[in-house]
Amino acid sequence: MSYWNDIREARNDPYFADYTEEMAMFLRNHVVEGGFVSNGGTAHADGAGVDVDLDITATKTVVDGVYGELSAVTDSAHTGPTLSAGAPDAYVAVVIKKSAADAFAFDYVNGAAAASGAAAVPTVSEIDTEVGHEDWIRIADVKFVRTGAAAVTVTLDNTVRPVFDAASHS
Fold first, then answer.
1. Residues 6 or more apart from 101 whose CB is under 8 A from it?
2. Residue 120 to residues 21, 36, 112, 115, Cα–Cα distance (Å)
3. How many CB atoms lie within 10 A of CB 11?
4. Is residue 57 in some structural domain?
């Protein structure tokens, strides 16, 4: 009988609706396995976009409620933002997108190059525009900092992927 009492009490919890909505969103959009991004040898030269060479592990994912698998990527071929002495910092968002035909692919969305310390990660609306629709999930943010005319440091953030934190609702 306590099982039913627990359910009644949970339904009266003010966080119950938020908790179930967050869980539903997570179940519709998350990485099941893999999808970790690492630097595969990114290069930079003034006057050109960053030569983004990222490696991504094989990935199992759910986007908009559809399950898909992607093969590992070695040395992605993507041209990132153009960095300069006056705008040495920029981000690239790494996303998994799902097409209308339920095909999955990795995509890279450039943020704008900015003054030192002023770069921002691409926004949701910027990613929607670049991808062409809303069926995607962000798996990493990659920060590029120009350290010289032909040098760049790369910082990876693999923690931006969708997670469900049940502890935040206790």
1. none
2. 28, 21, 7, 10
3. 10
4. yes
For residue 70, what is the enclosing H or E element?
strand 66-70
CB within 8 Å of 47: residues ≥ 6 apart: 82
Which element (helix H / strand E) includes 107? strand 104-110
Sorting pLDDT into bands at 50, 70 and 90, what band is 17?
low
CA angle 159, 164, 169 (to 5 degrees): 125
Query: By C-alpha distance, which of 133, 121, 118 is closest to 94?
Result: 121
Record the pTM: 0.84
Q: Based on the structure, what is the number of domains in the chain?
A: 1
Q: Do the domain assignments include residue 169?
A: no
- Among 119, 169, 107, 170, which residue's Cα sits nearest to residue 144? 119
Task: Find where tokens 């040098």 sit.
Answer: 151
DSSP code, position 133: S
Question: Mean of the pLDDT values across residues 90-104?
Answer: 94
**DSSP conformation letters of 13-47:** STTHHHHHHHHHHHHHSEEEEE--EEES--B--TT
Cα–Cα dist 144/80, whole Å: 9
Domain holding 79, by residue range, is 2-162
**Within-domain flag for 80:** yes
From first CA to last CA, the distance across the chain in angstroms is: 23
